[in-house]
Model the fold of this input.
Amino acid sequence: MAFPREDTKAPLEEHRFPCDQCGADLRFDPEADELTCDHCGFHAPIEDRQPAQPVIRELDLERALNADLPEHELEETRVLSCPNCAAQVEFDAATHAAECPFCATPVVTDTGAHRHIKPKGLAPFQIEERAARKAMTDWLGRLWFAPNGLRDYARKGRKMTGIYVPYWTFDADTKTRYSGQRGIVHERTRTVVVNGKREQKTTKHVRWTPVSGRVARFFDDVLILASRGLPKKYTDALEPWDLSRLEPYRPEFLAGFRAEGYTVELDDGFSEARDHMNRVILRDVKFDIGGDRQRVSQMDTDMSDLTFKHILLPVWLAAYKYRGKTYRFVVNGQNGRVQGERPYSAWKIAFAVLLGLIIAGAIGYFSAQSQ
Done:
């Protein structure tokens, strides 16, 4: 979904915060929960922060799908688009070349601006890079078939990159009328003759009864990944996310981190959310039908109060090129959960197979001797 450019454009966002003492860039420190200068040690709180569990206002979905959002809900940021994985990552004006943090592909930036819906909220990083790296190396250490060289490279390699990954959340109030059938299982026992002997045989039969009814459910914060920079199976495996820790969007939280622009458009995100809602509604309908088995022939769902918001969730990311192949590891920036490609060492696998054959041969030999 594209947003037309108007005479009044959204301002180009610059997420830089100079230190009051030395002028170096401040960064958000997850442990101190404030801005910190790595150059001189200066600390600065994030001013005017909301109290605990602040209210983050949702946006009207229909207006957004019709490209009719107010101008203050849009922004422009300077991004690079990776030619390999298609990730769009925000960079500051001083950056003219970089490596894609998602796949380690060298990229020369286009210095273009990306116009998009402004995030309404984000979950700040809660763990530092060193804790994320330890979680990643511990995870790799439990993978016995991982190449030792890659594990050493990950331990000693460059720092992990903190990325705010884009998500959509959707709310909807649903009311569904359905029709179908309720199945009750009945057992029947009859006498049969098998090989000249009389036996009792029990069979099951289902008696179907037509049913209809209504179910209702309010969906709150159906979470949909808005990025194609990482395989969805990895980001899904990072769940659960603690959305109660969402804060109203403040660019100060991005200081020292990257932010990925969404590449899954709002309408595509809602389509995925609708599929999720339909699966949940189908489960509700089957529960409402009851019985031993259920058949659903029709569902008509009315949706109202459709709202959404664009949020950012914290991920520590490492992408390493090792012997010509890229390996990517992601760490949940809230709880340290790790996912990634599972590398395999051909030598270790061959050794394990050989060892298994030796053990099997030894067991066979001693078994033969004992007989």
In short: Confidence is low (pLDDT under 50) at residues 4-12, 344-352. The first strand starts at residue 27 and ends at 29. Residues 358 and 364 are 10 Å apart (CA to CA).
